[in-house]
Amino acid sequence: MHPTSIATADGITKVLAVIGGKWRINIIWCIGRKGSIRYNELKRQVTGISNTVLTRSLEDLASHQLIERIDYHESPPRVEYRLSVDGLSLFPLIEQLDCWGTATCAKNDANEQY
Amino acid sequence: MHPTSIATADGITKVLAVIGGKWRINIIWCIGRKGSIRYNELKRQVTGISNTVLTRSLEDLASHQLIERIDYHESPPRVEYRLSVDGLSLFPLIEQLDCWGTATCAKNDANEQY
DNA sequence: CAGTATCCGTTACGATACTG
DNA sequence: CAGTATCGTAACGGATACTG
């Protein structure tokens, strides 16, 4: 096994390593929905996230090859984030999860009306 | 809004509340694959998980209506876990995530062979 | 067998202030 | 604008021993 691979566990393990955090899925979701997005707009969309956490999450997602960071080297700085090929292939699954969550929420809310 | 609902954020938030933990997805996956499963077998399948964490996860998943706990009230105790209706509807999405993870792993491993 | 109880360590998360 | 640096906290995860 080569050094950079994560001991090739099963697919779930790989997925968890990527989207396991508290904000990761949300971030991918936001980037995917916008196509490309800048740091501060992303921060506004992902309500409640702090600078530190957002930065770390973006670094982590980039290192896992799920997003791409495009630095235009301008002043004032302009940096855009977008989904990589892998990220794009993951995105529809996240959309499905969102649908499931919404549907389940709605159903449970309805049932709780006693 | 009624007290028991989780402030109806978006679907992603609901999903994260459910599968956000380190083992949750794995547990659902194992239960779903077996149909129904007992505590100790589950513990064997989910390699590395401790009693405390497994128990907490199961309680949590049950409280989120994703799994059902069936206690046969025998001695020695026999308890089975299986997916609820909600859990069953989530299961295929987890399978897809697993596929994605496996495919992505394989692809990246191949690329890294330099 | 199916858990509890206890206690501890790590890590992720977070607020705030500051920088190129 | 797009972050870094620093410090603090809380939640999660985990090992071990014990119980009905």
UniProtKB/TrEMBL annotation, chains A, B:
Protein name stated in the entry: HTH hxlR-type domain-containing protein
GO MF annotations, alphabetized: DNA binding
The organism of origin for this protein: Brochothrix campestris FSL F6-1037
Keywords: DNA-binding, Transcription, Transcription regulation
Superkingdom classification of source: Bacteria
Entry keyword annotation includes Ion transport: no
Pfam families xrefs: HxlR (PF01638)
Residue ranges of every copy of the HTH hxlR-type domain listed in the record: 9-109
Keyword DNA-binding: yes
Gene3D superfamilies in alphabetical order: Winged helix-like DNA-binding domain superfamily/Winged helix DNA-binding domain
